[in-house]
Amino acid sequence: MPPGRVPLLRRAWWAVLDWWYAARWQLRSTGPTTAEDYRTGTGQPVVVVPGVYETWHFMRPLMDALHDAGHPVHVLPVLRHNLRPVPESAREVLAYLEEQDLRGVLVVAHSKGGLIGKYAMTLPEGERIDRMVAVSTPFGGSVYARLAPVPHLRAFRAADPVLAALGRDLAVNARITSVYGVFDTLIPGGSELAGATNVRVPVGGHFRILGAEQTREVVLDAAGGSGPSAPRDSR
């Protein structure tokens, strides 16, 4: 169903479910699980990059699936709640890859994390990144960003210089899988990315898509080494 045709009441209900999901995972971030618990495994190394205001705990549904499949999963506590500019955070990601000597990396990202991942892939040091699965990423910006009260949210305007430059750079798109729902409460324009593998899953919202079975399947498929061979849309 195209975003514009989703009934208003259904959008409102999805928004309630979405923010409830987000609140629960914020609370879970105080739990006993540590980042070190995920770093064991012999499969392809994975680095997770969450969205703005999110800690790595938001990514745990996908991290659990990847780790259970034998992949060492890395997080970057230095990003904290991910409020810094995209270029700065992208360089932190690349610095971590070099420090840990990680190569052939799969980046699994949510929201702003996908912008950070793509920016890192466009830099010379980004050759350490094999591919990325980005979930609910505002590759084309969000119409709500111009109303945002703080600069780190206004940076999601389509006209923002960093976002616009990323949009013009198509070189790495073939190595990106963009996963998004039937309607995103924060990115109403959607997350389709030209030249990428675009996968739309039957979930409404921005956050709870991280816990969807279909999202886990896409991530595990990418971690299995198949990667995107040609642009497609699973609609």
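(the above was protein one; protein two follows)
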Amino acid sequence: MSGTPVQVPRSGRPLHGEPILERAFRVLGAFTEAGVGLALHTIAARAGLPKSTTSRIASQLTDVGALERLDNGDFVVGLHLLEIASLAPRGHGLRAAALPFMQELHRVTGQHILLAVRDGDEAVLVERLSARDAAAVKYRVGGRLPLTGTGIGIALLAHAPERIRKEALAGANDAACVRRLLATVRSDGVCAVTMPNPLRSGPTTMSTVAAPILSRRGDALGALSLVAPDEGGPRTAAVTALRRASLAISRAASP
């Protein structure tokens, strides 16, 4: 879930005639961190719904296993959602093809290996392998990432429809830099990016090497990236390894 604030009418009531399914997804969208329980009033505020409506919907979602209620009354995401989400073909099928190559990269580098797919104007992380002693990062499976603010997002954006690229570039902080990276991805099949670490602990900057995973027609099935502390040295080995892995996954996912 992206955690994007919901536009709420001034009355504080849901939009007139809004389908119950949309309100249910607004309740589910209130959960933005894995394993964190939320009180009913917090869910209502984030979803932009009256507390009574939120209570009724949360109870119904609990009955079907989409939410679970803790002993203290807070709600957490239920296991039934995980069961359903695991069946998503774009995530699960690609993950199955990519996992052996991700595991080898993880074994060799001891760093974070990420796999993502594009969903509209965002990247969705479908797998992450991390060593115990790797630098802490905020990325989580199921989390959403901006297409212009991460290496893996740029790898996806390079092969996104033109409309998506134009909209993303219009909102980019440094559109010229993003354009250069997109050109590098399209010409070399990989890009290397150094960005500030959003976490207060650990290294101040992180290095990302990312590559798209393409179908035989050239469409982006997903993207692969390696995230590690920036050591300021050459990244030739990482670039070569990521490029080889992405090509191998492309062949495995598009036989």
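Reviewer note on protein two: Residues 1-16 have pLDDT under 50 and may be disordered.
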